[in-house]
């Protein structure tokens, strides 16, 4: 889980004024990304003052490891293929600016 937390921290480099909860199939803990602070906070604990809705991502741990690998269009490809389900506060997705990516192809 520590490697995935570190990779998620690298994936979300800038503030995006929202919160994302990442639930992985079979995992006990979720990953919380608090984009209301700069740089975003990544933790297994829910952020303080979570009074509003959050964006929920669901999928397998292996898929998120690939998404956070910073290769081009991984999240989009996983979502379109149905490997990642996204729900909740969708306005977060519009404000999200993942880290710069390499030139590799998507999932």
Mean pLDDT: 86
Percent helix, as a range, is: 25-40%
Order of helices and strands: HEEEEHHEH
- How much of the sequence lies in strands comes to 15-25%
| Helix/strand structural class | alpha+beta
Tally of separate helices? 4
Please report the distance between the alpha carbons of the first and last residues.
21 Å
Radius of gyration: 13 Å
Shape: globular
Largest sheet, in brief, is: 5 strands, mixed
Uncertain stretches: 101-107
- Strand line-up across the major sheet: 3-2-1-4-5
- What's the total count of β strands? 5
Describe the protein's architecture and organization.
The radius of gyration is 13 Å and the shape is globular. The chain is an alpha+beta fold. Strands 3-2-1-4-5 form a five-stranded mixed beta sheet. It has four helices and five strands. The chain has helices at 2-11, 61-67, 74-80, 91-95; strands at residues 19-24, 31-34, 41-43, 55-59, 84-88. A hairpin with a 6-residue loop joins strand 1 and strand 2 (31-34).
Give keywords.
single chain, 4 helices, 5 strands, alpha+beta, 107 residues, five-stranded mixed β-sheet
Task: Offer a quick outline of the entry.
With 107 residues, the protein is α+β, with helices and mostly antiparallel strands. It has helices at 2-11, 61-67, 74-80, 91-95, and strands spanning 19-24, 31-34, 41-43, 55-59, 84-88.
